[in-house]
Amino acid sequence: MMMDKAYISQIRNDFPIFKQRIRGKKFIYLDNAATTQKPQSVIDAVVSYYSEYNANVRRAIYALGERATKTYESTRVKVAQFINADDPHSIVFTRGTTEAINLVAYAWGRHNLGPGDEILITEMEHHSNIVPWQLAARDTGATLRYIPITRKGVLKLDKPEQYFTDQTKLVAINHQSNVFGTINPVEKIIAYAKHVGALVLVDGAQSVPHMSVDVGELNCDFLAFSGHKMLGPTGVGVLYGKRSLLESMDPFLGGGEMISSVTMEHATWNEVPYKFEAGTPNIAQVIGLGAALDYLTNIGIENIHRYEQELTRYTLNALVSIDEVMIYGHSPAHGAVISFNVADIHPHDLAQILDQVGIAIRAGHHCAQPSMRKLDVPATCRASFYLYNTPEEIDCLYKGIKKAIRFFK
Ligand code: PMP
């Protein structure tokens, strides 16, 4: 399917937020790596749950409870299909990527790591794929190691034997950087990890919403991602794990519904994935995520990826034509995230000027301070796209940057 101008305009019509004006200007949203906007169908799915069949899941033996459980569980099947997992039981609902990674760091890490073991991550991770491993290393005596990055925002993988050793027990890697836009060669990294017998967790927060990610093909052990970055509500994310691994792991949180039986002395666990879904889950949000997956599937994730690639190239071409713009992230495999600075204008000042003309970009360290240190900058500006963005919006960004340069001269 061609995602041409008419088609994008049709897509934009599905997003009520774009009907409003910001400061009297058309709203241009370029902060999709932080969170994405929601189509009416997702909003409707959440409203319909609360207004038509609000009930707890997996415990209410009446019509509403059955409908809630059925719809909630149907999202699990849709998620499995979306990432090509052959078993919906390998899909655990979490609050988001952060919780999914913490789940592995606690439920797997605390029981399988010890002194002499190594956890291998990279210098381009989001804090949510750094701090849980720092805590796990601190608590278990394991060592945390980093694959370095170049100043171009690319992993230095020329001597893999330096990093992938017999001590490596777990490799946790960002599929796509939320700072540089770099799409990492996860297939290669998974092969290196498997060669030394390590497990692999892929942080798919920035990849799953934007490209086809096939866990069957990748053969990763875990994949984490967030619903709110793929048109879904906040408060819902996914941990995919190989079923045998999930079964071998202890629970993360204890509480209702994650048990098989409880005595005064001890408890036994429910089957996976319920073992990892203690308490009342985010039902409306999971249902909303189901509607988001329907929306994305209907358009086709490959079409979305292709369109975003065009938009990214268009933006990079526009930005490199401005002498004062410095772009960070020069990987040939580049997703729809562009970090940059403009002369010596502080990123917050640029973001504020762009906000005056209705353009929302991100300015800051992007929860990736080690990456910022590597670049020797405290912060960058970041423009990130999704299926509803247009070349005309990029033209506005270009004009806004030119205006800021004139303003600060
Ligand atoms: N990893 C990456 C690469 C991210 O970009 C983000 C969100 N910016 C996260 C993890 C954390 O996601 P969440 O806040 O939804 O848990």
Question: Could you walk me through the main structural features you see in this protein, from its secondary elements to its overall organization?
Answer:
With 409 residues, this protein is of the alpha/beta class. It folds into two domains: 5-35 and 301-408, Aspartate Aminotransferase, domain 1; 44-298, Type I PLP-dependent aspartate aminotransferase-like (Major domain) (Aspartate Aminotransferase, domain 2, 3-Layer(aba) Sandwich). It contains 13 helices and 17 strands. The strands form five sheets. A seven-stranded mixed sheet has the order 4-10-9-8-7-5-6, sandwiched between helices. Helix 2 (40-52) runs antiparallel to helix 9 and helix 4 packs parallel to helix 5 (131-140). The chain is globular and about 70 Å long. The model has no long low-confidence stretch (mean pLDDT 96). The site of 4'-deoxy-4'-aminopyridoxal-5'-phosphate (PMP) has 15 residues, from helix 4.
